Amino acid sequence: MSELFDAVDALVASRSPLPPPAERKRLRAAHGLTIDEVAGALKVRRATVSGWEAGKTEPRPPEREAYARLLDKLAELYPAPDSAAVPVQNAAVPATFAGTPAPAEAHSLSTGPASEAAVMTASENTQTNPAPTPAPAAAPRPARTTRPASSTSRRPGAKKAAPAGTPAGGVDPRFENGPLAVVDVEDGKVVAYGVGGLVLDVPAKSLPSLVDWTLQHAKLGQPKLSGPGRPADPLLVLTETACERYGLPVSLSEEEKDAGRIPEGHKVVKQLVRAEWKLTKRGFGPWARIYRPAKGSDRQCVQLCIPSWNALDPRFWGDAAQLAPAELARVLGVYASRVMTPRGSTAVTSLELMTALHPPTHAVRDEETGVLRQAETKTPGSLGADPVDCAPCEAPDGHPVLNALDLPRFHVRGPAEKLFEEAYDWARPMTDAECTLRYLVGLDVNMAFGAGANGLNVGLGEPTHVKNPVFDPKLPGSWLVDLSHVDLSKVKVGKEWVELDGSLLPSPFTPKGDRPTGPAWYATPTVAYAQELGYDVTPTEAWVRYENGRYLDGWYSRLRDAYLATMADLGVDADLSPADFLAAMDGYKERDPELTIAVTAIKATVKGGIGKLRERPRGEGWRPGERWRALERPTWRPDIRAAVISRTRINLHRKIVKHASFTGQYPIAILSDCVVYAANGPSPLDFLPYREGKPLPGGFKLGINPGLVKHEGTQSVLWGEEVRERFNAPELNLARSIKDGTVTDVDNGE
Predict the structure, then answer these.
(1) FRET partner for 163 with CA separation of 20 to 30 A, picked from 140, 410, 536, 654?
(2) Model-level pTM?
(3) Which residues are within 8 A (CB) of 725 and not within 5 positions of it... i.e. 6 or more apart?
């Protein structure tokens, strides 16, 4: 009888009731469990648990009983937010639950050969529209159906994320399935997850046929962002199983990582060549571009993203590479719809966004023939199609423009020879009065470099050398001028002169906060700020750009809007009161981890783009004095980078001076866009001079908009003194570790 009882128990366990996939994920997240922790406890792979939560697959015995037990216990701890009971999902589900349509529910339309048919499937929770009457064979269209988007636990008041399926610039019938798809293999079948829960069955048996299918049937892509521009190419993201299916390695070897690509002799590359597809000069790497030369306006190009090859760098994309396909499609879809379809790293995409908003060339109609042709002049407001050399003072070490200077070997250029516009890395010892306070409070400027770029006039063309120029604050350029006479103990704040303790302030003219000792090169915003503080400036030399404009305004606006919209989805609105803003920011990352990834990527797009304006050699056998690949880009512009960093640093210093003149409080440390103050309380509201909810004009203001500040972190004054004493470093930059209090070694500034 015991054997019979065991058999009965096993039969019951095989049908253990489970909540719907979205509720499984909610319960795990509510208890703070990671997918890895659940997978480890149940002794299954991470991807298996992701599949259960995404509704792609269902657990089987013996794991099913254990998984059901876990979810039951979590449901007791974290009841469903509404009063209605959460329906359970038993094992007798239709085949469509795992993404594979039951024979009677699949809707297939022939588009020529059977191998090129595109089939779209619906999940069990979506009401499927009646199958449309097949169109004529010459112009068939697949039925469009979607799966429900997975939900997560949200803070009360948080807004639901806006659908990511709308391409940037509006709906376009050519791209009705969105900008991208994540290609995966499930139960032996290839499927593509699009934005908004869309799922496509993929008939392609090889990578060349996958590219053909994408261009002919997938209806993926994005409309152009500006009049003279071009639409974005479709993006396919290949999971590990998709890589295996199409003959690609799941991961790169060390040699391939160093090269950034697989060898040209790889069988998949040979398949593409035989099918007359081409690769860019970068070859087949984590972000491969596969194309055929355009014929007129007919562009044939597909972008591939391979997360397992580190295409989605975790520094900028968090754990996006470990997400289930549907979740990854959602994250990338939000980014694509609000920023643009990724074209590489966040830094690469940032430059592509600049170019897409200001295309270098445009079409004109020939007056004689009436045929459209490419204009001979560059598009107004753009950087043009050809790179320009920077001024010698703007050139990084090793740049070929320095060859003409005939500098001695191993010569180190100083401030009078080289432009040093960098972000702040400054700290000072605390005063006796500050040591009597209890807390160190960090403020962080939202999208500081984006705010620094907003409205900034930058050069669009080549620099012109000028001797003994009269400084013009509206003229972009680099100026050789002595600012050592600027005394921070007496400066103008607005129209009034104020007296400050200059020893407690960093100099606005150097990244380390040291007072200049003689002539040095500065970007226009830095020299203009010296004038603003009430001091005369007399440059002796300059490299200026008479062709100029607000090139970054559109770039900033799009990234700002993307950031604000995504933060609003996370419950952080732009119109919150200071106290409500601090409360909304508390724990916002846990409300929707997927959208949090998108926020991180958007912010990385801002910083990465500015940094890449002065990209250095990356191997390539480069030697000092030779050109490197990045110099051939019109967007290699160290002068623009310097101007943005200069303005960002000056914006922060202006707030610091305003705050000091009104409150008598001075910063303890500054790192880039983070500034630390000593205070009696742990909150920014304990020292920021708000009156009736209104901030000090021109000072620090709490809020989510770029240029406003948020709470970065709070530590005790005792913590600050202890770590400085431990490392015997009285000027250790506490801004670097104010967020979590972790200090592992003496700060070397790297």
Answers:
(1) 140
(2) 0.78
(3) none
CA atoms lying within 13 Å on the CB side of residue 517: 3
* Beta-bridge partners for 490: 499
Long-range contacts of 251-254 (CB under 8 A, 24+ apart): 251/308, 251/309, 252/309, 252/310
Phi-psi region of 517 (alpha: psi -120 to 50; beta: other; left: phi over 0): alpha
- Pull the structure tokens for residue 608: 């990465």
- Residue whose entry in the numeric block shows the structure tokens 């846990």: 590
Can you read off the two tokens belonging to residue 31? 């208890």
Q: In whole angstroms, give the CA distance from residue 300 to residue 280.
A: 13
Record the tokens describing residue 611, joined without a space: 């940094």
C-alpha closest to that of 704 among 574, 601, 583, 565: 574
Q: How far apart are CA 358 and CA 245, in angstroms?
A: 39
> Does pLDDT of 166 surpass 60?
no
Q: What is the DSSP pairing of strand 199-201 with strand 118-120?
A: antiparallel
pLDDT band, very low/low/confident/very high, at 130 (cuts 50, 70, 90): very low
* 284 Cβ contact list (under 8 Å, min separation 6): 261, 262, 266, 268, 269
Is 575 buried (19+), middle (13-18) or exposed (0-12) by CB count in 10 A?
Answer: exposed
* Distance from C-alpha of 245 to C-alpha of 131, rounded to nearest angstrom: 30
Please answer whether residues 253 and 247 qualify as being in contact, where contact means their C-beta atoms are separated by less than 8 angstroms.
no
Query: Cα–Cα distance between 290 and 160 in angstroms, integer?
Result: 36
State whether the Cα torsion 287-292-295-298 is positive or negative. Answer: negative
What mean pLDDT do residues 284-288 have? 97
CA distance 357 to 169: 12
pLDDT per residue as tens digits for the range 641-668: 999 999 999 999 999 999 999 999 999 9
Average pLDDT of the segment spanning 66-90: 71
**Torsion (CA) 241, 196, 225, 353 in degrees, nearest 10:** -50
Closest CA to 603 of 243, 254, 350, 260: 350
Please name the helix (run of DSSP H) or strand (run of DSSP E) that holds residue 141, with its range, or none.
none
Spatial separation of the C-alpha atoms in residues 172 and 517, rounded to whole Å = 59
Residues 211 and 116: their CA atoms lie apart, in Å, by: 11
What mean pLDDT is predicted for residues 131-140? 36
**353 — pLDDT class (breaks 50, 70, 90):** very high
- Give tens-digit pLDDT for 7-26: 656 655 556 788 998 889 88
Q: Token pair of 402, please?
A: 């320095």
For the chain, first and last CA: distance in Å? 71
Q: Which residue in 260, 227, 259, 245 sits closest to 191, CA to CA? A: 245
Which residues lie below 8 Å from residue 524, measured CB to CB, with a gap of 6+?
Answer: 457, 473, 475, 476, 477, 479, 643, 646
Phi-psi sector, 592: left (phi>0), alpha (psi -120 to 50), beta: beta
C-alpha Rg value of the chain to the nearest Å: 29
Cα 483 to Cα 640: distance, rounded to the nearest angstrom: 22
Q: Are 750 and 744 in contact (CB under 8 A)?
A: no
The confidence score (pLDDT) of residue 361 equals 84
Angle, CA of 504, 505 and 507, to the nearest 5°: 140
Strand order in the sheet with 669-671: 425-427, 669-671, 674-679, 439-445, 709-716
- Please give the Cα distance from 679 to 718 (Å, whole number): 12
Average pLDDT over residues 515-538: 97
Q: Considering only CA atoms, which of 684, 643, 675 is closest in space to residue 656?
A: 675
Question: Is residue 117's pLDDT more than 70?
Answer: no
Provide the 3-class DSSP secondary structure of residue 30: helix
Tokens 């009401």 locate to 127
C-alpha distances (whole Å) from 559 to each of 72, 405, 551, 579, 585 are 42, 40, 14, 26, 20
